[in-house]
């Protein structure tokens, strides 16, 4: 009889414990789309944030989706000079997991101010811009995850190397830590995979600085981008991606990256960028994402995960540069697991 009483008491305590824990999770889900206590309710989460620069004050566009006091992901888009639109696939995955995320157009991008001054397009100034956005949005080390894809990955690494004390987690999506090694991978590994006749046409146009020739971008999209940027026929690309490319600021893009994703060309300012030697100083939990068909070497992405002190590697076997679109079944579960593992104190480096 005594044993039955003890067993009943134990079961009751277990059930009570579960009941006590459940509302904690349910409260985040229940309040996820409640904007009633936020100052951006009228704009649906959109804020134009003033940014101080050496050339004056400008405004950048942000939009917050959802409420989660413990997980807030600031998204740094690629380019440079592209837009937050390349992340719109996240709408189909993050809300169901009650993950708060913030779209953000960097200065010079379509939805933000676009000053015509190339002196503004430096890594150091963009890092300070991200820091001002963080402060304006009230993000801190208890909730702030920074996620950067492509050029956004460069910016995320640069920010973390200066301000990792402000971060709860870091995600580097499809970006190597060395522009010279990125160029070498494009030249020595990816270029030989192309039809030799197509490759020669591209190389001849690059040699002649004939980047404005419509044939140059036509060949790139048909024979390179559909293999290594987004693995779908261009006619089937999601509308958000075609809109993103339509909204590109070519002045910022060419000044920093060059004329295409087929390596960094000309005197683009990112040509010699390299932070490999500094990554070992990063202690913040870090997810590095690489993809089989990417413009970036997936082995290098794996190296990043091992080089930082608390890294994890996510490999997308069917993905390319925009693996959130061509390998979502691997990409999103891996990203969501990382966010939740860090939040729950269950993160383990790979």
TrEMBL record:
Entry annotation: catalytic residues: 150 (nucleophile), 294, 321 (proton donor)
Q: Give GO terms for biological process.
A: proteolysis
Q: Name one Pfam family in it.
A: Abhydrolase_1
Residue ranges of every copy of the AB hydrolase-1 domain listed in the record: 73-328
- GO CC, one annotated term: membrane
Name the InterPro entries on file: AB_hydrolase_1, AB_hydrolase_fold, AB_hydrolase_sf, Peptidase_S33, Pro_imino_pep
Q: Where is the signal peptide?
A: 1-21
**A molecular function GO annotation:** peptidase activity
Asked if the Swiss-Prot or TrEMBL record annotates the protein with the keyword Amino-acid biosynthesis, the reply is no
Kindly indicate whether the keyword Nucleotide-binding belongs to this entry: no
Keywords in alphabetical order = Hydrolase, Signal
Tell me the protein family, please. Belongs to the peptidase S33 family.
**PANTHER family in UniProt:** HYDROLASE, PUTATIVE (AFU_ORTHOLOGUE AFUA_2G14860)-RELATED, MONOACYLGLYCEROL LIPASE
Protein's UniProt name = Proline iminopeptidase
Tell me which species this is from.
Answer: Flavobacterium xanthum
């Amino acid at each position: 009889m005594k044993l039955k009483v003890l067993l009943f008491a134990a079961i009751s305590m277990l059930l009570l414990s579960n009941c006590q824990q459940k509302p904690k999770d349910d409260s985040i889900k229940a309040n996820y789309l409640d904007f009633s206590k936020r100052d951006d309710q009228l704009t649906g989460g959109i804020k134009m944030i003033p940014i101080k620069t050496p050339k004056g004050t400008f405004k950048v566009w942000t939009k917050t989706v959802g409420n989660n006091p413990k997980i807030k992901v600031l998204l740094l888009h690629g380019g440079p000079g592209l837009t937050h639109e390349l992340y719109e696939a996240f709408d189909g995955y993050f809300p169901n997991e009650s993950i708060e995320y913030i779209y953000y157009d960097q200065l010079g991008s379509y939805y933000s101010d676009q000053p015509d001054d190339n002196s503004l397009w430096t890594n150091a100034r963009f890092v300070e811009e991200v820091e001002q956005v963080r402060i304006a949005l009230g993000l801190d080390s208890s909730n702030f995850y920074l996620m950067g894809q492509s050029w956004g990955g460069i910016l995320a690494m640069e920010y973390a190397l200066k301000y990792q004390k402000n971060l709860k987690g870091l995600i580097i999506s499809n970006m190597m830590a060395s522009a010279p090694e990125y160029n070498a991978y494009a030249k020595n590994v990816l270029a030989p995979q192309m039809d030799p006749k197509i490759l020669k046409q591209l190389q001849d146009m690059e040699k002649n600085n004939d980047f404005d020739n419509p044939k140059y971008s036509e060949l790139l999209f048909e024979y390179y981008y559909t293999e290594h940027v987004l693995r779908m026929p261009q006619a089937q690309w999601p509308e958000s991606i075609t809109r993103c490319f339509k909204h590109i600021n070519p002045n910022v893009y060419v000044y920093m990256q060059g004329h295409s994703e087929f390596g960094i060309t000309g005197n683009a300012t990112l040509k010699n960028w390299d932070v490999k030697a500094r990554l070992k100083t990063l202690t913040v939990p870090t997810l590095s994402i690489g993809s089989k068909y990417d413009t970036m070497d997936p082995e290098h992405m794996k190296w990043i995960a091992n080089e930082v002190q608390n890294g994890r590697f996510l490999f997308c076997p069917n993905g390319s540069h925009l693996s959130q679109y061509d390998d979502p079944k691997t990409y999103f579960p891996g990203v969501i697991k990382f966010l939740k593992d860090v939040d729950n104190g269950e993160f383990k480096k790979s």
